[in-house]
Write a structure and sequence with these properties.
Strand content: 35-45%
Number of helices: 1
CATH architecture: Sandwich
CATH topology: Immunoglobulin-like
Radius of gyration: 17 Å
Order of helices and strands: EEHEEEEEEEEEEEEE
Structural class: mainly beta
Number of strands: 15
Low-confidence stretches: none
Number of domains: 1
Length: about 240
């Protein structure tokens, strides 16, 4: 089977998220056959887009879904894995992290943000609307049923050796991303973005922001410029996406 994503005039990236062909255990390993069959998203770019330099560290990112969950698997190349911040809903982006932004109905109002560290700490919150529009966040919300596991290919918080990278595996309950009595099936296409915050020159120095869908400036909270994720009801490995 060959599937074609409609491009039209949209300039943001698109991704066909295929079904997990077999059960996924969230254990911080992406070695399962389902992950091997999942296709990768396009590479991350500088958040400012245009002719800005490409990221100096690779990020591999894939997604799958089933009736219950949206699965996200990422491998972040990293030669010095740092994660000292501890505690739910602490400001993880003050260190290197990986972030997920979800707007299921695509209206830019009432969207979700997740931040994850290499040691598996979580910041999850709901946004009323973008900060530039007077929006505010609600970090007391903890996503019900969220599963996350990380694994480190190296040693955590040890500067004297050289690491290879770290793996993030997440299962986000699709129902938890709905408002009121909405059903996930009502939204077959979501607006989404991913951001990797990287302090190349150490803590306290200006950070790099590498994202899936650039927004043209250092501000990820522009949902109208996020990418499109299409939930395709076909098992990974059974379709070729063009």
């Amino acid at each position: 089977m060959t599937l074609c994503l409609a491009s039209g005039a949209q300039t943001q990236p698109s991704y066909a998220c295929l079904r997990a062909p077999s059960p996924i255990k969230v254990d911080g390993s992406l070695s399962e056959k389902a992950w091997q069959l999942a296709q990768p998203l396009s590479p991350l770019q500088d958040i400012r887009g245009g002719d800005m330099p490409s990221p100096t560290k690779a990020t591999s990112l894939k997604m799958l879904w089933d009736d219950e969950y949206l699965y996200i698997g990422a491998y972040l190349e990293e030669d010095d894995i740092i994660a000292n911040i501890t505690g739910r809903d602490e400001i993880i982006w003050k260190e290197n992290d990986f972030e997920v932004f979800l707007d299921p109905d695509g209206d830019g109002v009432g969207y979700f943000e997740f931040e994850f560290s290499a040691k598996g700490e979580i910041l999850d919150l709901m946004m009323s609307k973008p900060y530039s529009q007077g929006g505010n966040f609600y970090s007391h919300w903890d996503c019900p049923g969220l599963q996350i596991k990380t694994s480190v290919d190296g040693t955590l918080n040890k500067h004297s050796d050289k690491d290879k990278g770290w793996t993030l595996e997440v299962a986000i309950p699709r129902k938890a991303m709905m408002w009121g009595f909405d059903e996930p099936s009502a939204y077959p296409t979501w607006r989404m973005n991913f951001s990797r915050v990287e302090y190349l020159n150490g803590p306290g120095k200006p950070e790099e922001n590498w994202v899936w869908s650039p927004t043209g400036k250092v501000d990820i909270h522009i949902p109208s410029l996020w990418g499109w994720v299409h939930f395709v009801d076909v098992n990974a490995g059974e379709a070729i996406i063009k």
